[in-house]
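From the pipeline queue, job 12 of 40. The input is one protein chain; the requested action is below.

Action: predict structure.
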Amino acid sequence: MNTAQFTPAGTMTAEDLGRIHLIGVGGVGMSGLARLFLTRGLPVSGSELREWPSLAGLRALGGTIHMSHEASNLDGVDTVVYSSAIPQDHLEMVEARQRGLRVLHRSEALAAAMTGRRTVAVAGTHGKTTTTSMVTMVLQQAGADPSFVIGGEISEVGSGAHHGTGEHFVVEADESDRSFLIYRPYVSIITNIEADHLNTYGDLANLEATFAEFARLTDPEGFIITCADDPGGRRLAETLRAEGRRVWTYGESADADLRLSGMASSAQGVRYLAEIEGRSLGEIRLPVPGRHMGLNSAAAVLAAYLLELPVAAAEAALGAFPGVRRRFERKGVADGVLVYDEYAYHPTSMTLALQTLREVAGEGRLIVVFQPYRLYRTRDLQAEIAAALGIADELVLLEVFGPGELRQPGEGSAALLSVVPLPADRKVFVEAWDDVPAEVARRARPGDVVVTMGAPPISLMGDQLLDALLARSGDTAAIGTGVDPDGAAATAG
């Protein structure tokens, strides 16, 4: 995507958009933007083909949702918003241009909503949704009432977007299509930089150069935060510091500005000691497991420190962090089997998530139900994805979710399955969605952990798995979303 075609950030406000229509409004990113506009009091409509869970909330806020794509959906509309998943020849896109309506990419519409605010933009190959959520909760705990748009819903809050009264606007900045170059942050957080979206960037060097371009858009009065433990983040910090820019780092590395020590993770959560500029910030605790969660939280702690917010607010917010939906989200337990959902689809994030789920499984087995996301990624990172899936005890593999992609010979889940390092009887490709719950119910035993993982549609599978497990047990009391038998927190993110 060539960002030169976009309207520069800050030249219009959300109120300038008039009546707004979002194509594909049910997706996480688009539904969050719709929620933001609705809570800002703006008239919003949207079109969808599937009844996503987010749609009920949008209707409750006064949004008009059309369950079809039709030219008539644009009657009375001033601005049409689309995402990179929507093709240019989409019926409503063509109709909008024929009518002479304003047509904006999601990033342009979001940039308009940020006008006049101090933006905290969180980017990175992994962890940006969780980190954005943590930063948001820290600002809320400090009484700053930020606006925010996150690529996921904060668990228990049930929302991925909000129009706040404070000066800050926290946003998850998506690098997949270069659209994060639209934003003009006051604070830029870059969690890590690894090879991904190479259909857009070609190679890692170009991807790293684009992250540097994003960081250079940061307000000179603001600051840039990177992870000292990540090679890409370290290289970026060195480049930007050589240019005289204000860069702060976090991590377990000895030279990190915010240094973490004594980090420990268990099924009950993660904790570490934090120190900055010779000052101890004490112990930071999270009720969610995973060392990567500790690193994500450190970015939020550092942002709070640099924004001169009370460190106690960061400690309190992170100590109560409920997790993010689709990020290590507990769906329930049925017939002694614990079911989670996890958004990870890149091999690095898959590996981190599955290692953490191993901690949760304990003596039980780990069964992974995986739907790969995008043909190009599955092809280019096949060996790495297969190695991550090899952490599982059992694998149920669905076909690749790649809307708009053309499958070439030898591409897809069959090729991936053949190189997953598991015995043949412990891995299976299931072509039909409706056959997956029965396959999982056949394989799972009491004490096992099952995780649905990967592309967006697989998030809808968890409830079906619980129903299948419940049906085999015949015990309606066997399902729940409360507390694990060992007392561990039920929800993680």
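Job complete. The domain at 329-478 is CATH 3.90.190.20 (Protein-Tyrosine Phosphatase; Chain A).
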